[in-house]
Amino acid sequence: MPTILITGATSGFGRTTAELFANKGWNLIVTGRRSQYLKELKTTLSQKAAVHTITLDVRNTDEVFKALENLPTPLNNIDVLINNAGLALGLETADQANLNDWHQMIDTNITGLVNVTRAVLPQMRKANQGYIINIGSIAANTPYTGGNVYGATKAFVDQFTKNLRTDLIGTKIRATNIAPGLAETEFSIVRFKGDKGRADQVYKDLKPLTAQDIANTIGWLVDTPEHVNVNYLEVMPTCQTWAGVTAKPN
Ligand code: NDP
Ligand code: 8X3
């Protein structure tokens, strides 16, 4: 059976993607900081698939390399990497945003993603096969007030994915950036630091994407033939579009 490594599998897109691939019988490597959630996930999925859990903060370069360079066979042959771990913190304008929040987003969404990618890529290169799916965001290309550093980290993900494609020319390794729009997960609870009431307001009277929608998208991408590479895939709920440019007296 093939092996999939999913970062940020303790909730949201990552967790549901783990469930989807467990149903296919794949070997799973699931990671995240909350070890109790990983333990519960393993208990839930173990009847269907081999589940290997790694408590891992993707920001910690040494931890990432130590964990991913010492995987037991056959898990050291990763077929699909889902770079999903990430977060938004705060929605203040740039002059008022919390600088620590900015650093945490940069460290997680950029440094964490490149740490994991760099740790896994040599093995894929050696096998001349593999698929890296990065979770970007519509925030990369659609500026919105308060999206400042979060959107910029996702713009990095977009360009990094394209640059990976050019570096991987002449190999069978694929790379895709999925850019989801509004999706209801723990995302807004994290963004608003546990304020569930404020998080709920984000989705009030709307039908946002679900984690299942994104897991299904990942499942579809992985099922495409090896000679097909979807470079970029933007997915919004039908209730969402772009706001357009705006002007205001100043
Ligand atoms: P969730 O908050 O539900 O899940 C985020 C996951 O990332 C958790 O499993 C969390 O695990 C993990 N994570 C966060 N920081 C770290 C870290 N330092 N090291 C390891 N794991 C970490 O949100 P989503 O499922 O919605 O988000 C998944 C991805 O999708 C993110 O990259 C997000 O930016 C992106 N996205 C989300 C959208 C949305 O509207 N929901 C839309 C577009 C993109 P733990 O806390 O256990 O470490
Ligand atoms: C999450 C989507 O629009 O809240 O990446 O930034 S958005």
UniProtKB/TrEMBL annotation:
Keywords assigned by UniProt, alphabetized: Oxidoreductase
Domain of life: Bacteria
Keyword field contains Phosphoprotein: no
PROSITE patterns: ADH_SHORT
Xref: InterPro entries: NAD(P)-bd_dom_sf (IPR036291), Sc_DH/Rdtase_CS (IPR020904), SDR_fam (IPR002347)
Keyword Oxidoreductase: yes
Any one Pfam family match given in the protein's UniProt record, by short name: adh_short
SUPFAM superfamilies in the record: NAD(P)-binding Rossmann-fold domains
Family annotation (Gene3D superfamilies): NAD(P)-binding Rossmann-like Domain (3.40.50.720)
Similarity field: Belongs to the short-chain dehydrogenases/reductases (SDR) family.
Name of the protein in question: NAD(P)-dependent oxidoreductase
